[in-house]
Amino acid sequence: MKLKQLVLAATATVSLLASGAAVANEGHGPALKHAEVNVTDQAQIRRGLDVFTNICMGCHSAKYVTYKGLMDYPEIGLTREQVDELRGSHPLTDGLISDLNPEDAKVSYGKVPPDLSIITNARRGGANYVYSILTGFEHDPAGKVPDGNFNEYFPGNRIAMPDPLSWLGHDESETAELEKQAQDVSAFLAFISDPHQNERRVIGCWVVGFLILLSLVLWRLKVEVWKDVKH
Amino acid sequence: MLDKIMKTRLFAWIDERTGAEAIIKSQLTEYPVPKNLNYMWNFGSLALLVLVLQILTGVFLAMYYKPSAALTMGGYTVAFDSVERIMRDVNFGWLIRYMHAVGASAFFVVVYMHIGRGLYYGSYKGPRELLWIIGVVILLIMQGAAFFGYLLPWGQMSFWGATVITNLFGALPVLGEYLQQLLRGGFAVGDPTLNRFFSLHYLFPLLLAAIVGGHVHALHVVHSNNPEGIDVHSDAERINFHPYYTVKDAFGVGIFLTLYCYVIFFNPQMGGYFIEVDNYVPANNLQTPPHIAPVWYLTPWYTILRSFESKLLGVLMMGASLAILFLLPFLDRSKVRSARYRPVFKQMVILFFVCVIVLGYCGHSAPTPTLKLVGQIATTYYFLFFFALLILPKFEKTKPVPDHI
């Protein structure tokens, strides 16, 4: 079990780095901050789920993630009681849907908040992007964009989402806690973007390992069959 | 093992009714192949393998995929939702879908290597002109199939890619607008477009399978070229396809599958090259993505299109850049096939490969004045290459070609 987790974490890191490195700087604006995210860490993903349901879900949905999924995915692994408490009267097969009506959202924020089910796949930089946005609220140096709508990492800097973690003007002593919250929710979102990714990487080790062995055998076979061919 | 099977009574029964033994002998165990083929000759069998994988995975995807642009919650559509259901809820749906999506790119990787090999060693020259021409038809159908397939997830890049490409048809005189509307099934890309693209995405691979059959048949009539580019006369220069090349192809399959599965399991989006980031955003006809670019395998031709100020000219030149491939066997009249014995051609063809990669890079990147100029220079060389071949044999001093392998 220990070894399996180690392999998982290692492969997850390598592939995240590989995919992150290729896309991180493709956009414009400052380089994204690096988020300490581990999609195999159940504790971090669960903390992220808390942040998501308590803060993000005020406006955002994750419609492809069902309450049942919160029990079924071993990376989250909530108990039936925990899920019942979370879902209230929603059926188990419902997605994580925000109570905010899209029409009301349009009136309040000028646009409908995007669904976050696959957000780390849908933005260059993935989890780093989400983390950077959440901790990227600043005062506009030009003084044009009102506080809470200026984000260093958002393309064009003017973001409709008002500083959800109250990052702007936070007390120095809260920095570590807020960064942790932002990373945790980034981990949760990175996980749900592709909920079979850990399973995929474990199976991948076996598949690729087998294929390397198979190729070696086929290579020896080829050499054996060809040894009587004169050049 | 094959010998043993061929000695059984069941095989004898089948043979009497089909002539299976004669086919196996003429096409496999006694099908003569030059003995000096290098590993560049592995890509043909790999392309066939990927075609089979694409068809198989595609059949299973179609059992769950729903071609409908009807809106669902959160700005998504039935089509987009069904793809996400495959990724999340269908047992091993993620595997099938990543195999298919990565397979599309893998298909072009092996086919471009296959074409590059044909160019370098002069495999398009007589008597293999028709073999080459059938191959170009396959390339065009593949590009069509890939283009139709890319619309199906109904993401932002699906929608806008389809909009840009179908727009091109509108640039053609007289029939343009009609063609464009016929393709779209309306004035804009929408639900009818999705339905006909799904239908065509199912049809094209069937066409491919049939034409690939023709390609292999044509190959078995004129036989394989070889790195020396010379005709093979004696039995000492040939070996039977089976077991020599079946085992060599199998080894190639092993290497290919290792790399293919590495990407599928560890980096299926390939950093946005195989599945573009913007295609995880649901299609929105009111919001153009900041930068529309086709997937990497179509970007060289996209650059040619963008290199011309006039849209019509761009479309025509893009068409010409593909059509000229048909003419290649007749443009290049040199008696020597392989680049090994054609010093000038060798440099030209290597520069041509570099030029196609540069074109691909330009088409993938957001347009800047510098990149545009680079793209135009590469486009010029792309066409120059073919026309230079027309006069090249007149002054190229070829090296002496060996009599036998």
Could you list some keywords that capture this structure?
heterodimer; A: about 230 residues; mainly alpha; Cytochrome Bc1 Complex, Chain D, domain 2; two-stranded antiparallel sheet; about 50% helix; about 5% strand; extended; B: about 400 residues; Cytochrome Bc1 Complex, Chain C; 2 domains; 2 strands; about 65% helix; globular; transmembrane helix (chain A)
Largest interface: A-B, 46 and 41 residues
The computed structural class of chain B is mainly alpha
Give, in spatial order, the strands making up the sheet with the most strands of chain B.
Answer: 1-2
Number of strands of chain B: 2
- The CATH homology group name of the largest domain in chain B: Cytochrome Bc1 Complex, Chain C
The end-to-end span of chain A amounts to 52 Å
User: Beta fraction of the residues of chain A?
Assistant: under 5%
DSSP summary: helix tally of chain A = 9
- Total domain modules of chain A: 1
How would you characterize the largest beta sheet of chain A? 2 strands, antiparallel
- End-to-end gap of chain B: 30 Å
Domain module tally of chain B:
2
The averaged pLDDT of chain A comes out at 90
> What is the name of the CATH topology of chain A?
Cytochrome Bc1 Complex, Chain D, domain 2
Pfam families (chain A): Cytochrom_C1
Binding site for heme c (chain A): 56, 59-60, 161
InterPro entries (chain A): Cyt_c-like_dom, Cyt_c-like_dom_sf, Cyt_c1
Cofactor (chain A): heme c
Describe this structure in words.
- The complex is a heterodimer of chains A (231) and B (405).
- Chain A is mainly alpha-helical and 231 residues long.
- Chain A has a single domain (29-195), classed as Cytochrome Bc1 Complex, Chain D, domain 2 (Orthogonal Bundle).
- In chain A, 51% of the residues lie in helices and 3% in strands.
- Chain A has a two-stranded antiparallel ribbon.
- In chain A, α1 (2-23) packs across α9 (197-226), α2 (42-54) crosses α8 and α7 runs antiparallel to α8 (175-193).
- The radius of gyration of chain A is 22 Å and the shape is extended.
- The N and C termini of chain A lie far apart (52 Å).
- Chain B has 405 residues and is an all-alpha fold.
- Chain B has 2 domains: 1-30, no CATH class; 31-395, Cytochrome Bc1 Complex, Chain C (Up-down Bundle).
- Helices cover 66% and strands 1% of the residues of chain B.
- In chain B, strands 1-2 form a two-stranded antiparallel sheet.
- The longest helix of chain B is centred in the middle third of the chain and has 32 residues, at 191-222.
- The two termini of chain B are 30 Å apart.
- Chain A binds chain B through residues 11, 14-15, 18-19, 21-23, 26, 61, 63-64, 69, 97, 112, 114-115, 117-118, 121-124, 155, 194-196, 200-201, 203-205, 207-208, 211-212, 214-215, 218-219, 221-222, 225-226, 229, 231, and chain B through 35-36, 73-76, 81, 84, 87-88, 94-95, 98, 239, 243-244, 247-248, 250-251, 253-255, 257-258, 261-262, 264-267, 269-273, 277-278, 280-281, 290.
- Chain A: Residues 1-24 form the signal peptide.
- Chain A: Heme c binds at residues 56, 59-60, 161.
- Chain A: InterPro entries: Cyt_c-like_dom, Cyt_c-like_dom_sf, Cyt_c1.
- Chain A: It is found in: Membrane.
- Chain A: Keywords: Heme, Iron, Membrane, Metal-binding, Signal, Transmembrane, Transmembrane helix.
